From TrEMBL:
PROSITE patterns on file: G_HFLX
Sequence similarity: Belongs to the TRAFAC class OBG-HflX-like GTPase superfamily. HflX GTPase family.
Single Gene Ontology MF annotation: GTPase activity
Residues of the Hflx-type G domain: 122-299
SUPFAM superfamilies registered for this protein in UniProt: P-loop containing nucleoside triphosphate hydrolases
Keyword set, alphabetical order: Coiled coil, Cytoplasm, GTP-binding, Magnesium, Metal-binding, Nucleotide-binding
Recorded GO CC terms: cytoplasm
Main location: cytoplasm
Record flagged with keyword Isomerase: no
Gene name for this UniProt entry: hflX
PANTHER family (alphabetical): GTP-BINDING PROTEIN 6-RELATED, GTP-BINDING PROTEIN HFLX
Entry protein name: GTPase HflX
Amino acid sequence: MAIFDDELTPAQQRTLEDFLKVKVIDRAALILDIFARHAKTMEGKLQVELAQYQYLLPRLAGQWSHLERLGGGIGTRGPGESQLESDKRLLQQRISKLKDNIDRVSRQRNLYRNTRRARGIPVIAIVGYTNSGKSSLLNALTKSNVQAENKLFATLDPTTRRIGLPDNRQFLLTDTVGFIKKLPPTIIKAFRATLEEIVDSTLLIHVIDINSPNAVEQCQTVEQILNDLGLGEKPRITVFNKIDLLPELKGRVNEPNRLSMLDDFLQFQPSNTVLTSATRRWGLKNLLETIGRYLPEPYRSEEGSVS
């Protein structure tokens, strides 16, 4: 099997397969395959199936090219063409049904979001490149056990948890699907309902794997996707995660020493930047304090008590 980084047109894929004599897939197909393996909830499975069918639809012709040469009688169509049209019709019907099901999920999410707005609880969305530690950060902040694995796209469905600050202010924290370079348009469309959680948030926490050799490029990819979604101006906190894995700090394995060694790094960063190790629970206090600066001030009665 050969895998190509760029998305291939159906014609390009058939030409390469004829030339190489092996199965050829592109980046989009590989990502869809990973998504399919990790989809757990009904919503996630619906979204992945829709993206797969939308990817497959323009590529159906190549599946029946071996029959198109058979031909039929005078004034009739060959069996390949007839089968192709039949498959297209069935696929389009399935796509339509999946969109309807996902629209129902989206309407349910809208009702839930409207309830949250009525209660006035701020929503904060965790975004970042896939495998940057977003789910681990959610678990660390909320003491949850959301699936967090060292693999691409371990989380496909948004997970929301409530968090309370020491002054009794509360907010909802949502973990979202990880981004990746050249995210296929079919995936963005299929995961519209999930991405709406980001659009509806009042604050973004952009998690970056500081230990990754491609951290800069990954950060730029996330920012570009956010800009494409019209979220470039939304307030955000940048979290440099996995500081415990930095090789240059080997031997300094406790939180005070690790943060102290990185003080010089912080001097060149804005006030909305935080260093963390989600798995070791380092830097969480600083992160919560930074989040608190973005939330509405707690209501104080005339006696000065916080409500």
